[in-house]
């Protein structure tokens, strides 16, 4: 037996080394990992994880498992994502062909790593993304409503200002009526004086003059009353305009703040979508 032959371990020794090394893999990695070591035909040893169980029994044959056969046929490591239907937990499957120093493929290692945590992260990420999308839609609706409110408030202020202008115009008319009343009163007084001078013949004229003076006084009193009412209306409208302007300012600030919040949520939503993509269970860039 030459030097090379003296340093070539037997196939059994190589497989036994794998059995020994991989026995504590889940403890070393602190992960829910199950391990299967086979020769070319049968299972040599298997180790269950914390929740993952290998489900290997005496009837196990390598030829019944395509991923093991494929790994040994090609001599390449194979990775797959296994759904939770069979094992109750989704897991990543890694199949590694065991090669002897002479290149001969003498067995296979199958490792299953639980993806329960990753699946939960994916679910949470998707839920977060959905919630943020709903929040963003709600805020956009609020922002749109605030802008509409601001527009309507502007219209109300415009109408109130127009009313204030009309009140000023009415005040001009009332002032004119007051002037007419004063002149009428003066005319009535002059007419009464002239009637007194005319004596008995001017008595009828004196009655008309007195009624004219009374009407002028009533007109003057009514004009004063209307002026007071209009003044109160003007002051009320001015107060309303002031309040509406303040509300309009609040609405504009609210709309601006909502837009800023919407932009922030859109950014967070975009990041959450990226998180969803990153958290999706994939292997090997698949």
UniProtKB/TrEMBL annotation:
Highest rank taxon of the organism: Bacteria
GO biological processes: signal transduction
Keyword RNA-binding part of the UniProt annotation: no
Domain Methyl-accepting transducer intervals: 135-286
Residues forming coiled coils: none
SMART domains listed in its UniProt record: MA (SM00283)
InterPro entries (alphabetical): MCPsignal_dom (IPR004089), Sensor-like_sf (IPR029151)
A GO CC annotation given for this chain: membrane
Assigned keywords, A-Z: Transducer
Pfam families per UniProt: MCPsignal
The keyword Acetylation appears for this protein: no
Full protein name: Chemotaxis protein
């Amino acid at each position: 037996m030459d030097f090379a032959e003296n340093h070539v371990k037997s196939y059994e020794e190589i497989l036994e080394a794998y059995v020994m090394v991989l026995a504590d893999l889940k403890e070393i990695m602190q992960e829910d990992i199950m391990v299967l070591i086979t020769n070319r035909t049968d299972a040599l040893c298997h180790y269950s994880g914390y929740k993952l169980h290998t489900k290997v029994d005496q009837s196990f044959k390598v030829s019944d498992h395509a991923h093991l056969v494929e790994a040994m046929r090609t001599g390449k490591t194979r990775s797959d994502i296994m759904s939770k239907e069979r094992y109750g937990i989704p897991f990543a499957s890694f199949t590694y062909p065991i090669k002897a120093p002479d290149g001969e493929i003498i067995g296979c290692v199958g490792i299953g790593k639980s993806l329960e945590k990753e699946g939960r992260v994916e679910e949470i990420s998707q839920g977060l993304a959905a919630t943020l999308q709903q929040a963003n839609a709600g805020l956009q609706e609020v922002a749109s409503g605030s802008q509409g409110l601001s527009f309507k408030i502007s219209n109300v202020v415009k109408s109130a200002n127009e009313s204030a202008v009309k009140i000023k115009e009415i005040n001009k008319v009332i002032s004119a009526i007051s002037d007419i009343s004063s002149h009428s009163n003066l005319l009535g007084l002059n007419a009464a004086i002239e009637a007194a001078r005319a004596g008995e013949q001017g008595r009828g004229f004196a009655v008309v003059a007195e009624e004219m003076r009374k009407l002028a006084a009533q007109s003057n009193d009514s004009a004063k009353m209307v002026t007071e009412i209009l003044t109160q209306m003007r002051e009320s409208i001015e107060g309303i305009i002031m309040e509406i302007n303040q509300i309009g300012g609040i609405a504009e600030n609210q709309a601006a703040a909502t837009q800023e919040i919407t932009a922030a949520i859109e950014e967070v939503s975009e990041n959450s979508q990226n998180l969803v993509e990153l958290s999706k269970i994939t292997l090997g860039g698949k």
